[in-house]
Amino acid sequence: MSKLKEKTILITGANGGFGRELTKQLLEKGADLILTDLKAPSTDSDFYLQRKWLEHYGNGSQQQHVGKILGSFSGDLQTQEGCKDVYQNTLKFSPKGVDVLINNAGLAFKGGLLDVPDKNWNLILDVNLYAPIHLSRLFVPAMLERKQGQIVNLSSVAGHVAAGELIYYSISKFGIRAMGEAMDAALRKKGVAVTNVYPFFADTGILKSQQFGKQQDIPMGIVDSPITVVKAIVKGMEKRKLHVFPGIKSKTISFLSRMTPNIVHKITSLNDRL
User: Fold this and answer.
1) pTM, two decimal places
2) Rounded to 5 degrees, what are φ and ψ at 158?
3) Could you give the CA distance from residue 116 to residue 274 in angstroms, rounded to a whole number?
4) Residues 104 and 11 sit within 8 Å (Cβ to Cβ)
5) Which residues of 203-236 are buried (b: 16+ CB within 10 A; e: fewer)?
6) Distance CA 111, CA 256 (A)
7) What does each of the 274 residues of the chain score in pLDDT, given as a tens digit?
8) CA dist 38 to 113, 188, 259, Å?
9) 125/168 Cα distance (integer angstroms)
10) CA 38, CA 79: separation in Å to the nearest integer?
11) Per DSSP, what are the bridge partners of residue 71?
């Protein structure tokens, strides 16, 4: 039986590639979900689980383990007030708070220090970094009262290796990595664990983010599948791991950044000049 069965989980950015796949796999684990995004996500479980999956299990014993969607709503994480609204709307579906908060919402703009306009790089920090801070400060107190809970942060390999053309994205992902490590050091002994996730480039909408300055696309041949990334996330959640590196590319980059940081930096710098 999954340790996530009947756990109440809030997923931000639930309409995105990782968000939809998280919804699907967590429903399969028997979790009870609350979903939010700029546009209210679907509350139809069939939409995420897919009809073939349901037909395969039919009305057999396996289907009793499928979770449910408690509700969804639109939420804007660009401001502290928007984060407070997300918190209040979540309490309408789960008055005692949530067992797990997944800080999945995120965005990116490609460009160097002087290329990305102020409003865009500020938006990256607001959504990718400040929103998880605001939401964690809102949801953690109830977790501490129950002496049980979990925060899942979607960082990135860009939170380990900073490329010049992803400077603001990397700042946000280094920041959420630091936030997660610091929170876990302080809270795990009190029953609240943090799981930081460091995906490589994955086949989600973020690959189509607006670019400023030099235009450069990521080869699809090196891109990971959201399915495999989310499988690693869910497994890491069940084990309450602090660090999750989904896939060989993520693991390799993390290892090299620790063992040969100067070489990795030179390779990254060369890539930015191509």
Assistant:
1) 0.90
2) -70, -5
3) 19
4) yes
5) ebebeeeebbeeeeeeeeeeebebeebbebbbeb
6) 24
7) 689 999 999 999 999 999 999 999 999 999 999 999 999 999 999 999 984 444 444 544 444 579 999 999 999 999 999 999 999 999 999 999 999 999 999 999 999 999 999 999 999 999 999 999 999 999 999 999 999 999 999 999 999 888 888 999 999 999 999 999 999 999 999 999 999 999 987 878 776 778 887 767 666 766 789 899 999 999 999 999 999 999 888 888 777 777 776 654 555 554 554 4
8) 27, 31, 40
9) 8
10) 13
11) 34
Residue type, 11: I
